[in-house]
Amino acid sequence: MESNQLAYDADPRIRRLEHTLADGRQLIYFDDADTRLSPERAPDLRELTPRPANAMMRQDALTGEWVSIAAARQSRVFLPPADLDPLAPQSPGNPSEIPSHYDVAVFENKSPSFGPLLTDGTAPHGLDDLDGIGLGRTRTSVGRCEVVCFSPEHEGSFGTQSVSRARTVIEAWAQRTAALSSLPGVEQVFPFENRGEAIGVTLHHPHGQIYSYPYITPRTQRLLASIDRYGPTLFGDILANEQRGERVVLRGEHWTAFVPFAARWPVEVHLLPHRQVPDFAGTSLDERDELAVLYLRLLRGIDALYDSPTPYIAAWHQAPLHRGRDDIRLMLQLTSPRRAVDKLKYLAGSEAAMGAWIGDVSPEQAATSIRAAIERVDAANPAAPGWTASCQENQPVTDQAGASDPGEGTPA
């Protein structure tokens, strides 16, 4: 399959250092613009067992969707203590995945859902082949999965980072999107963060992941079908419509965040750039600078809805490599199942079995609550709401322990 080389405007303020782990996996350090770290990093001297066999995909003939069977993931680490954190810098008692201290680190997952193979030597692997339907069809799960460590600290999330650190992570997303998109066999690149045990996280360490799929995901295929039916202006029209309405929660020069008109989850926020850009690799330095500030304000506001951190999935939807790049726009879809201080929305019969959603909170009420929570966070931060997007500015983490408890019903 042909590769796709994306244009990427790298930020010269953020240093990138490439290394190799003991078993051959790639490790990349991204140093903050205001880093205090030396560029010298220790080698990985561990003696590691070989990587597990590549996962295999099986096709569901009822839907045409491909399911990756990655059995090696069954034995991954589950909520380890701080002294055995596999994402912390290595120490004499902790032979973790990262040999040196770091600001942000990205490395290949040892037991990935896709990869490390990038070609399938046993069968065709193009989009035309994958779109076909048949019984007993299998293909190799080619691609790559990477772990993005936001901080060397044991606990936290993206929202607990400084503006400078947030900007470094965003730069890592942009650089890795460009690099992964150039790999043969990759059709779509997906950065995301799972936050909270209610979501199913297995590590408290602040981190996210990047999946590089060998196909166009089912959600994106449905989006492409909607664009075919509506027209190529779908994203621009959605943004303009939301900017005129009451569901906007944050707006800057380059980005707008809003609760969508047909929100599925009790907490759901979409964030769009103001111009047509298909993925992080296509964003400008100014857009990334502003995003570091706006995204932190959004996440801290989501955490301030209640008096304890909010579980969420932060999913950065990007255009696939070979379809829809002029029409699909980079978009954050942040969702949380938390519908009250002590209640979660579970996907039961209608949603899980039929894909027919029922919303528990009106999007307008949710937007009002999220705006109020962001205002509380801004008021608690002496620099808010005019936080600087400069990478030279290293803002402290906002203490949200005093957020009010809205009790039952709609978040407040």
From TrEMBL:
Pathways per UniProt: Carbohydrate metabolism; galactose metabolism
Ranges of Polar residues composition bias in the record: 389-398
Domain Galactose-1-phosphate uridyl transferase C-terminal: 242-327
Enzyme Commission no: 2.7.7.12
Single GO MF annotation: UDP-glucose:hexose-1-phosphate uridylyltransferase activity
Keyword flag Transferase: yes
Pfam entry (one): GalP_UDP_transf
Catalysis: reaction(s): alpha-D-galactose 1-phosphate + UDP-alpha-D-glucose = alpha-D-glucose 1-phosphate + UDP-alpha-D-galactose
Superkingdom: Bacteria
Region (Disordered): 384-412
Entry annotated with the keyword Acetylation: no
Keyword set, alphabetical order: Carbohydrate metabolism, Galactose metabolism, Metal-binding, Nucleotidyltransferase, Transferase, Zinc
Family: Belongs to the galactose-1-phosphate uridylyltransferase type 1 family.
Name of the featured protein: Galactose-1-phosphate uridylyltransferase
Gene from which the chain derives: galT
